[in-house]
Design brief:
peptidoglycan L,D-transpeptidase activity, 6-stranded antiparallel β-sheet, Beta-lactamase, 7-stranded mixed β-sheet, cell shape, alpha+beta, serine-type D-Ala-D-Ala carboxypeptidase activity, serine-type D-Ala-D-Ala carboxypeptidase, about 725 residues
């Protein structure tokens, strides 16, 4: 009996203990690791969570304004409503499509610029499975190597298989969506891009402003565009600004100077020449985004300031007189001789202060036969050289004096010159014995031929002789002309001036230097002719012509100009080598032309001012294209025409204004309407009339100020 029954022990508690112990170790390790992360790396982790990116965007400001010398606004900024888009980093195409659809319900958008490619991209976005529908499975999965072998990626293949006629027949509203999306796609990250600024109505502005919370990145603001109170007058020289951002051919240039791709910059003329002055100081906004590209904060770090203003030397009232005179007299000349003046379509003129180089007015007007109207082509006054004819004979005479081939007061018998083997050369009539002054007054070709022959190497002419000529003397003659600005750049402060052009030849002949002496060989621009006559009027000092007078700080006062930043002072380029007595002699001859029976006397004899100058008529050839019934050019037929020119200055004793007028391709006809002289007379009359009117206004103003002061006392 005393047997004990032993109980069988269970292993379950032991296993549970092991399991609990293991879990304890795991939790302990986890707690330890969390502690390490929290204590040692917590700050780094939090910094990564809070990581943001700052990016500064520069917002364009209105450009500087332009004024004429009397304070009249020539180029202004006109404010207008604008709808802009500032995208975050890497916005999706679907986001742009969504925004475009919403905006299209609020605004009207011009659809004239959308392309077939824009429509195809829209089609791809709006289809559920475009690639599956139009491409095989193999084509959808082309690798880069396969795509290169096929010369098309899947996207390019899909574009080719979209049927323009069947797939792209969109309504006007859908086209507006496409046009809006196109602008959204062109925007750069964190840079405001204009979606619409032309013709934004108050209602559109208000509706978009009300729904900005539904349109991420869209904003309503005020923009500006250039305004020209004087219409097209002087527009060629004022230039314009780009409408599509930076020009592609100058992209690197502007980007290296901190421009944005969608910035508007000067394109031609003063807008381009003074771009760095007119552009202003951009407003700078700092955008803060989180690691997902969401906008966290924005703040203005620098307020913007519109560009500096320019004061021009131009007198816009005189400019208006010049423009109207050219249009008026070209019209009359064509009406009086419609057949003979068939090819006469334009005229150019320049007026400047011969003492300072200030360009007072500069114009070119061209008649468009199809539109039956004139358009401004003023830049042709500086980049369209023509044969000047006798207008340059003052320079010829001074070259002869300085080279020692003619003497002060020398007389030469004016009758036809006959050289061996060449046709005779003569003046418009046999003038008999003429002095140097009479040669200018009566415009003797023969006198100038003798100057040319002598400079060329033949000291004395004998009938039927073979002319002695040294070709290197041709350049000697040209060098004399260049002292007056003929055949070289005048230094005008715009980027489109040309040097003029000579008749390029490596085989000069004696007859060529004779033609050069009467303005029948080398060609010059209207601006060069104006600088040439200014140099004679200014006692031999050639000054740089300048359109811009001053740069001034912008001001908020509408009727006032800001402080002067920079003044463009008179710049004397050179003094001609001729002795003062010879310059005085030519000045006297120029006076005879206008006041004592010379070639311009009829047109200026009753003027209230004493003017001087030189007329010119050059033989010119116009090669008319002869076309077949389908409009193809079959041949060119030469038409013999003339260029009419006139250079001058006034008053004679103390010149205030010098000018040049060029009228190319006029007909050759007895009693020809002298367009050049009519324009020149209008120009000088207008200048002195304006001067008198302003003088009277100033006197009235002074009297009013005196009365005001007396009353206050």
């Amino acid at each position: 009996m005393g047997n004990k029954h032993k109980k069988k022990k269970s292993h379950l508690p032991f296993r549970l203990n092991v399991l609990f112990f293991a879990i304890f170790l795991l939790f302990s390790g986890l707690v330890l690791q969390l502690g390490v992360v929290q204590i040692l790396y917590g700050a780094d982790a939090q910094e990564e969570i809070d990581k943001t990116t700052n990016q500064t965007t520069k917002v364009p400001v209105p450009r500087g304004k332009m004024y004429d010398q009397y304070g009249n606004i020539v180029v202004d900024n006109e404010p207008m409503y604008s709808i802009t888009y500032t995208p975050m980093k890497s916005p999706s195409q679907q986001l742009h499509l969504s925004i475009a659809k919403k905006l299209a319900e609020m605004i009207e958008m011009d659809t004239g610029d959308i392309t077939v490619r824009d429509k195809k991209d829209y089609w791809i976005l709006t289809q559920e499975s475009p690639y599956e529908d139009r491409l095989t499975k193999e084509e959808q999965t082309y690798t880069d190597e396969e795509a290169q072998a096929e010369k098309s990626t899947p996207y390019e293949l899909l574009l080719e298989r979209i049927d323009v006629n069947k797939d792209l027949n969109y309504s006007e509203k859908e086209n507006e969506i496409i046009a809006i999306k196109r602008e959204l796609d062109r925007a750069y990250s964190l840079t405001p891009h204009v979606i619409k600024n032309e013709g934004v109505t108050q209602q559109e502005y208000a509706v978009v402003a009300e729904h900005l919370n539904e349109l991420p990145g869209i904003n309503v603001t005020t923009d500006w565009k250039r305004k020209y109170p004087y219409g097209n007058s002087l527009r060629d020289y004022l230039g314009s600004i780009t409408s599509e951002g930076l020009p592609k051919d100058e992209l690197d240039y502007f980007l290296s100077r901190n421009y944005s791709r969608n910035d508007r910059v000067g394109s031609g003329g003063i807008e381009k020449e003074y771009e760095m002055v007119l552009k202003g100081q951009k407003k700078q906004i700092q955008y803060t985004t989180d690691r997902n590209g969401n906008l966290v904060n924005e703040k203005v770090v620098q307020e913007g300031e519109r560009g500096q203003d320019l004061v021009l030397n131009v007198d816009m009232e005189l400019q208006k007189i010049m423009d109207e005179s050219i249009r008026k007299h070209l019209t009359i000349a064509k009406q009086k001789f419609p057949i003979e003046n068939k090819y006469m379509k334009e005229a150019m003129a320049v007026a400047m202060d011969p003492n300072t180089g200030e360009v007072l007015a500069i114009s070119g007007q061209t008649y468009d036969e199809e539109e039956n109207e004139f358009y401004d082509s003023g830049v042709r006054a500086v980049n369209a050289p023509v044969l000047p004819g006798s207008a340059i004979k003052g320079g010829t005479m001074l070259a002869g004096y300085d080279y020692g081939v003619i003497s002060y007061g020398e007389q030469i018998y004016d009758n036809p010159i006959k050289l061996m083997g060449t046709p005779s050369k003569s003046s418009y009539q046999n003038l008999g014995l003429v002095s140097d002054i009479e040669a200018l007054k009566k415009s003797s070709n023969v006198y100038m031929y003798h100057v040319g022959m002598r400079i060329g190497g033949d000291p004395s002419y004998q009938p039927n002789e073979k002319l002695t000529f040294y070709p290197e003397r041709f350049q000697v003659f040209r060098n004399y002309y260049s002292q007056f600005g003929l055949g070289v750049k005048t230094g005008l402060d715009i980027p489109s001036e040309t040097e003029g052009s000579g008749q390029q030849s490596d085989n000069f002949r004696g007859g060529n230097i004779m033609d050069l002496a009467i303005g029948q060989y080398d060609t010059y621009t209207t601006m060069q002719l104006a600088q040439y006559v200014s140099t004679i009027a200014n006692d031999g000092y050639r000054v740089q012509p300048q359109i811009v007078s001053e740069i001034r700080e912008p001001t908020t006062e509408r009727e006032q100009l800001g402080p002067v930043v920079q003044s463009n002072n008179t710049n004397v380029l050179n003094r001609v080598t001729m002795d003062e007595k010879y310059i005085n002699r030519v000045q006297q001859g120029f006076r005879e032309v206008f006041t004592n029976g010379g070639t311009a006397y009829t047109y200026f004899k009753d003027a209230d001012y004493d003017a001087a100058g030189k007329t010119g008529t050059a033989q010119a050839s116009y090669w008319e294209p002869i076309r077949d019934g389908e409009g193809n050019v079959m041949e060119y037929k030469e038409r013999k025409l003339e260029n009419l020119t006139l250079v001058g200055y006034a008053p004679y004793n103390d010149p205030e204004i010098a000018f040049a007028v060029v009228v190319p391709y006029t007909g050759i006809v007895n009693g020809q309407y002298q367009t050049n002289k009519m324009i020149g007379r209008d120009l000088l009359d207008g200048y002195f009339k304006l001067k008198e009117e302003r003088k009277e206004k100033e006197s009235v103003k002074d009297i009013s100020e005196e009365k005001k002061q007396v009353n206050e006392q």
